[in-house]
Amino acid sequence: MKSILFSWLLFCATMGQQLHAQSIPVSTQVQLDFREKGKGNPTTILFLHGFSDSWFSYSEILDKLPRKYHSIALSLRGHGDSPKPPTGYSPDDMAKDIVHFLNKRGIDKVIVVGHSMGSTVAMQLAIRYPERTHALILLAAFATFNDKTFMPSFVEAIEQLKDPVDINFIKEFQESTILKPVPPAFMKNVINESRKLTASVWKETIQSLIKADYENRLSAYTKPVLLIWGDADQMALEDDQQRLLKAFPNVRLLRYESIGHAVHWEAPDRVARDIKGFLEFIQSSPE
Asked: Structure pTM?
């Protein structure tokens, strides 16, 4: 049976420490912006955001995690305040950026938390560089992008974008990712982060995502995987979750009722608790 037993030991919330804005050069083109908390602690959690988001996507989660973890939230290339080169937006390119980033920081292995596009990058990282990961936590993950009924019209809309990208397009896209309302100030910041993308980054990224092919290679990744998915998600569907359950040999799914695609925005307390429980499981299990 392709499942693992998790021990869900919950800890009292601790006060988050101040997040520090930093950037690390990973190549001649890309210097990734990031925020970190708990530097110096042995367990490193790397957070990878979704399409058009940035490190800010995880701001509430970072604040809710204990300081005993070293948490790093990146802004992937083209996103947030990270550089926006003309090319190189495939999940494989982004995975290479991450390895360079870890090397620069002297970090050997990480537990990777990815949301949406970030989950795809996390899976690519796990496939290409399994030795750099302890485990994966995938929020609203896709098994594939190219079979989604909404994708043709979404791609067509993106291909029409010009600089500066229409804020109404950004607002409509971000609001489509949630079922339940989030604090207005939070959503305003989310939209402002998406406004940092150029039209070219929108286009290059979406074209790379619909070409991404990784599902058939996931069986080689035998480390623990946790899927977290909201059953009201209209983007990453239940079919995606079932396919990922079949693809990974060591995986479990947590299903959140009446939650949309941005599960960590709608249910940050619950997501943070489940991440902490999974971390306790990882720390109590042999590699």
From this structure: 0.90
